[in-house]
Write a structure and sequence with these properties.
Blueprint (H helix, E strand, L loop, with lengths): L2 E6 L8 H13 L3 E6 L13 E6 L1 H11 L8 E5 L5 H6 L5 H14 L5 E8 L2 E3 L2 E4 L1 H8 L2 H7 L2 H9 L9 E7 L4 E6 L1 E5 L21 E6 L4 H12 L11 E10 L6 E3 L2 E3 L5 E11 L2
Parallel strand pairs: 1-2, 1-3, 3-4
Antiparallel strand pairs: 5-6, 5-15, 7-10, 7-13, 8-9, 8-12, 10-11, 11-12, 12-15, 13-14
């Protein structure tokens, strides 16, 4: 019988005690021995003894779990039972939302073994893992202003409310960005907004770059040289309409292995959460996550 550390976030966007109990029963029914472990104000908690770590939460809870795993993050397989606000990684991997279906599919994937799982090279910002995305600019400023209470009430719509509140005092700060492309060539640019995406999806169902994917050993850097109110509106509409973001010349997309900023710029959004601290470079961690799917 495989043992599972079930890490859950009791304050996640759509957390439910009832669904947690249903998930535990479903996993037990399919032969897993489950240890529920709630996150704390200090982050995720794991036993260090389980065969598999299951995250019952969103991308932020997944990131906290990977950080808690530390050097073992590449060795201990992970799965995600969706219970967050956006769930970018779980969406891309196709994990079912219903506990019974999730547990059944997980049991089949576990029986297949590592060869059939999704292997995702892990990138980091300083010492912090990035499991899906990062942004600096109006988007990250809005995330920093999101009300936790409102987020629990209306989900991801709380981000749109926070963005609308920025219209009076719109943030615009130019940053100098350098890095290494996937072909080994260096690059440099200036931008007022930057998004780094490792997962295929961003902010829900939107795909900013056709090359972004968890299994790809690169990150997609989307930069806006100017990020005024109108420019951001056009950018958002292009994403909603699934238009190529670089077609109109207001955004550039680069596939990179390393991205560095010339100075500490805040606020920073990582995996849907505001990060008060900052680091200067995004680069490979040297580890590869194993998603059991």
């Amino acid at each position: 019988m495989a043992t599972i550390d079930l890490v859950y976030n009791p304050v996640a966007g759509s957390f439910s005690e009832k669904r947690l109990a249903e998930l535990i029963r479903a996993l037990g029914h399919h032969g897993f021995d489950v240890m529920p472990l709630p996150t704390t104000s200090e982050g995720a908690v794991i036993s260090g003894k389980a065969d598999l770590v299951c995250v019952f939460g969103g991308d932020g809870t997944l990131r906290d779990t990977v950080q808690a795993l530390g050097p073992s993050a590449g060795a201990v397989p992970i799965c995600i039972a969706r219970s967050g606000t956006v769930n970018l990684v779980a969406r891309e991997l196709g994990y079912p939302a219903q506990p019974d279906e999730f547990a059944a599919r997980l049991a089949k994937a576990w029986a297949r073994g590592p060869e059939g799982w999704v292997h995702s090279p892990l990138y980091k910002l300083g010492d912090m893992p990035i499991v899906s995305c990062l942004s600096i600019g109006p988007d990250s400023t809005a995330v920093a202003e999101v009300s936790g209470t409102l987020k629990r009430r209306i989900g991801r719509a709380a981000y749109a409310v926070a963005l609308l509140r920025l219209l009076r005092n719109w943030p615009r700060n130019t940053m100098h960005i350098t890095g290494i492309l996937t072909d080994g060539e260096p690059f440099a640019c200036e931008a007022e907004a930057a998004i780094v995406s490792h997962a295929a999806l961003y902010a829900g169902p939107f795909r900013l770059s056709p090359r972004a994917a968890l299994a790809v050993d690169s990150i997609e850097l989307v930069t806006l040289r100017r990020s005024g109110r109108v420019g951001m509106l056009v950018f958002i509409l292009a994403a909603i309409l699934r238009l190529p973001l670089d077609r109109f010349g207001f955004a550039e997309i680069r596939s990179a292995r390393r991205v560095a900023f010339d100075r500490c710029i805040t606020p920073v959004q990582v995996d849907g959460d505001h990060m008060p601290d900052c680091a200067y470079a995004i680069e490979p961690s040297g580890m590869t996550l194993q998603y059991v799917v």
